[in-house]
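User: Hello! My lab partner asked me to get a predicted holo structure for this protein. The small molecule is pyridoxal-5'-phosphate, SMILES included with the sequence. Please write out the structure tokens.
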Amino acid sequence: MSANQAPISAPLPASNAGERRRANAYDVEAIRRDFPILRELIHGKPLVYLDNANTTQKPELVIEAEAGFYRHDCSNIHRAVYLLGERATEAYEGARRKAQAFINAAHEYEIIFTRGTTEAINLVASSFSRMTLQPGDEVLITGMEHHSNIVPWQLACESTGAKLRVVPITNEGEIVLEDFERSMNARTKLVSVVHVSNALGTINPVKTIVEMAHNRGIPVLVDGAQSTPHQPIDVQALGCDFFALSSHKMYGPTGIGVLYGRGELLEKMPPYQGGGDMISSVTFEKTLYNDLPYKFEAGTPNIAGTVAFGAAIDYLTTIGMDRVAAHEATLLEHARRLFDGMKGIRIIGAARERGGVFSFMLDGVHPHDVATLLDAEGIAVRAGHHCAQPVMDRFGVPATTRASFGLYNTTAEIDALADGIEKVKEMFR
Amino acid sequence: MSQHSLYQEMILDHSKRPRNFRALAEANRKADGFNRLCGDKVTVFVRLEGDVIRDLSFQGSGCAISTASASLLTEVLKGKTQAEAERIFHKFHDLVTGKSHPEAEEMGKLAVFSGVSEYPARVKCASLAWHTLQAALHQEPAATGTAAPQPVSTE
Ligand SMILES: Cc1ncc(COP(=O)(O)O)c(C=O)c1O
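Assistant: Hello! Below are the structure tokens for the protein in complex with pyridoxal-5'-phosphate.
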């Protein structure tokens, strides 16, 4: 930590209302009241927002935290000597400690703020690869990765002569651990795997994968974009070397996310971008880099967004991720009861361990038509390839319609989805 | 949902039973179109005699809007000259992008696509076959059976 950092202070205490909420049963109606957008009418109908894997809606206190920063504390960080600068720095670094606690990282400096999961993976793909990858080396991913966990590795392989190897997925949308074991060899330098698939909902056994890779001394990156919003995360228990997440999928603002990295690895890795804040001294002859995490945070970051992300973490912590997970499990259970026997529908992805993501095809109806017609009912779902074209190819479909659940969704909303689907089927009969 | 501005009866009908949905053995122009966003694919086949589109057909897979649009395109443009086809394409494009009203111009059957202008995300679906036809017409008389080297994209 450099000398101009604000001192560490205790995290903000949860509000009394929050304490009360924590003590009581999961009150989804009270939670819904925290989200102003859920009062919007869409084509004259109440919004049924089921596109949470794409991005989540924001509670009032997150919106207020972002606005509040601009109203009361706005200044740059790590460089202003006046009071506002101290407040801004403290708020920004406070968010780092909240993120650290949220995923149980051992050290504050292991939390690097990025623009999101995509930039977090690109950081590793660029920096770690420059340090490590040689021609003939291999990077191992799976067949269910988001494009942001494919393309950065293709770029890294292109510039280093390394090879990208892919562990295939089954018809259920799972990876077979024996296949995984077989795909590793002496040239494997990194494993990068998605925790929860955004296209299939599959929850991968990342702890076991990490153990298998570590037995061979191979570091592991976990793409946690879709797991962090839905279950408690403990990066030390997972044992992973890197973990990437996005605030906007966790009820926080867009444009901010985290790369968690184990300290020893981050220490050795070269900087990702150069600029202000990432240096300790610059001359035209030689530049000394700043300490972690600042070595990887060049330039003025998304300060207000980071502060509001901290508020989103407080919000989730107050509710409790175990309770969010339990609520969403009941939603998935409800959806399964409704859809598993439904005629004319094909569910894509049938992993035994599954999150609240529901990808489907209606016989004879293109996903884009499904989504447009559901929109007329106020129901927001995603249609497309979900930035996972290899997954679509694997299942032989051009696209799917996807409903994905969040902490504010209700079983009544899933009923509305089922009714909407029946109407679409009727129309295309 | 029954009176949906986008999914008019005629559009649903053409999407379920597309007309001229086949390969054209006598085609002397052909192009492939691809919408990266949704994976829609279309191949347009044209039999051009002199300046006249003597016959045309299409194949592919896509949403109701893109399929109906391709189907109606083949109906409307059969027998037209290249210049006429060009003019109708521009009118159609103005219609689906909301730059003209269906009543203002003699759009004929194509007027059913006026609802597309309320759905900017769907303009590409409606215009994919049209862009692909244009590419086919502008292409050198090619050996049929070989795909155009660069599929047309509506992006
Ligand atoms: C599994 C997964 N990884 C990575 C990303 C990329 O996240 P972002 O766009 O926030 O960088 C997403 C977003 O959809 C995702 O679902």
